[in-house]
Amino acid sequence: QVTLVESGGRWVRPGDSLKLSCAASGRTVSSSTMGWFRQAPGKEREFVAAIRGFGITYYAESVKGRFTISRDNAKNTVYLQMNSLKPEDTAVYYCAARGLSGSYYSVTEYDCWGQGTQVTVSA
Question: Which of 30, 47, 61, 120 would be 105's cystine partner, CB 3.0–4.6 Å?
Fold first, then answer.
């Protein structure tokens, strides 16, 4: 059984930094495409970042330069370092996994999802 467990979400002020973690079991992160997605109230779930293969990374334009996705193969964990947070980054953040090939940004292409962790950015 594959499980993904996110952690690290909390309330922060604009400009702060936050690091999310996604611990995987039953699936090897280095042999998967691992993605972070987010969903704000009343909006569709959207792609944030992904990592696959030999550490190739992808980012949504809205977070490029502020967020960094990484992984620790020994811990089978994926991270999302978020810097210069803005109120519009407020959302539930989800970790997801899929195979190595195919789309890295499509919500429907991922076959395993975590429960999500809430990130709130406000003054």
Answer: 47
